[in-house]
Amino acid sequence: MRKGGTDAESIIHGHAQRFALPLGEVELLPKTDIFVNVLSGDTLSQSFVIETDATSINGSFTFFMDNTASHHIVPFNVQQLTATKYLVSASYTTGTDGKWRILDIMRLNLTGGTYVEFSNPYAAIDLSGGG
């Protein structure tokens, strides 16, 4: 993963990508952008497993439409899996046909802690649009 704007990259830690904290106000993206073509009414879903020693976690995914260079920010749901692991996920139903970027965290707010790791990225498209 990389920090958008700075392009500072995470370090590989086993199956995960790790950043030292604090992250600052940055967008977190895959090292190579992933774009998908969707139709109006399709639903995009994104998720990651996040491991951290922070005491609280919240944030947002962004669903970025390349055609209009517009961000559609959706707060993510947080499900605690273990004392240090969380599943974060969000979905967005598109209103416009076009090329959309996926696996994109716009805001990640962590309280305390020294590290954050990202693993198990997942993206899906419910192709119910175009009708």
Low-confidence stretches: none
Order of helices and strands: EEEEEEEEEEEEE
Helix content: under 10%
Seen as an oligomer or otherwise, the chain set is single chain
| Large-scale geometry | globular
* CA distance, first residue to last residue: 35 Å
Biggest sheet: strands, sense, closure? 6 strands, antiparallel
Question: Which structural class fits the helix and strand makeup?
Answer: mainly beta
Strand arrangement across the biggest beta sheet? 2-3-13-6-10-9
Residue share in β-strands = over 45%
Cα Rg: 15 Å
Total beta strands: 13
- If helices are DSSP runs of H or I spanning 4 or more residues, what is the number of helices? 0
- Mean pLDDT, as a whole number? 93
Provide a short characterization of the protein structure.
It is built from no helices and 13 strands. The chain has 131 residues and is mainly β. It has a six-stranded antiparallel beta sheet with strand order 2-3-13-6-10-9, with no helix packed on it. Strands 5, 7, 8, 11 and 12 form a five-stranded antiparallel beta sheet that branches.
Descriptive overview:
It is built from no helices and 13 strands. It has strands at residues 2-4, 11-13, 16-20, 27-29, 34-38, 43-52, 56-65, 70-75, 77-80, 85-93, 98-102, 105-111, 115-126. The mean pLDDT is 93.
List the helices and strands and how they pair.
Layout: E1 2-4, E2 11-13, E3 16-20, E4 27-29, E5 34-38, E6 43-52, E7 56-65, E8 70-75, E9 77-80, E10 85-93, E11 98-102, E12 105-111, E13 115-126
List keywords for this structure.
mainly beta, 5-stranded antiparallel sheet, 131 residues
